[in-house]
Design a protein that fits this description.
- Helix content is 26%, strand content 26%.
- The protein is built from seven helices and 13 strands.
- The strands form two sheets. Strands 1, 2, 3, 4, 6, 7, 8, 9, 10, 11 and 12 form an eleven-stranded mixed β-sheet that branches. Strands 5-13 form a two-stranded antiparallel sheet.
- Strand 8 and strand 9 form a beta hairpin.
Length: 300
Amino acid sequence: MKPTLFILAAGMGSRYGGLKQLDSLGPSGETIMDYSVYDAIRAGFGKIVFVIRHDFEEEFRKKVVEKYAGHIDVEVVFQELDALPAGFRPDPERSKPWGTGHAVLMGKDAIKEPFGVINADDYYGAESFRILADFLRSVEGKKGEYCMVGFRIENTLSENGTVSRGHCQVSEEGFLTGVNECHGICKKDGKIVYTAPDGSEADFPANASVSMNFWGFTPDYFDYSMRDFLTFLKEHGNELKSEFYIPTVVNNLIQSGEASFKVLDTPSKWFGVTYAADRQATVDQFRHLVDEGVYPEKLF
């Protein structure tokens, strides 16, 4: 059975100013996720599942999904505020989504095989998908053996502002022992710095592995995630801005010993449109990759 790629595409880019998942950045009008889908197909994934919102479904199907017909199977699921377990209702004043952990839960009925999870608006590189696909094929039929594709911090920075990254603690055996969210990361005076919890500027380890929300799971993950989501709702469900994140589940599983997370190092360089000023650089990057023969002029 081929693995599935689950693409988180329900969010709006507040800093970028628009629905950046549908922005044309490639030389033939490709979106960032078109390149992810293309790389996934080459790596041996058999299905794509998108999680989106109903309010842009028509545009999304027309501009994104239709182009994949004949190339790979595609399903669409929806993340909405009222998509909650029985007995829970969102506060009528709440407008903020429930977070990436909730978004992944929307794929439970559509995914029955090992699957990868990525952001729609990040470019991860072809090698990253090959690494992930190889791992997912190796854990078919198993439980609690997950992974994270870890990016080298220097390969994930923006030239137009600071970024937030999950700093990964990795054991000598190569397994994840924890993820700490760090903010304000940038290169300054030849070194990488971040904003420490006390507000001061501190050095960020130059050789650190960071999470770019590129995970690999088997379907049993959904049960663990739902368990933690129920706890989250009981404790924070009445808060208007609380969010349930994938790393919350990851850290809980690591601490309980119920699952392991192999950290898969990738040499790929991330890029994306975190800020509006990143757009032209991203267009130029795709143009360069096409000129170098990494991708054809037109993907689909």
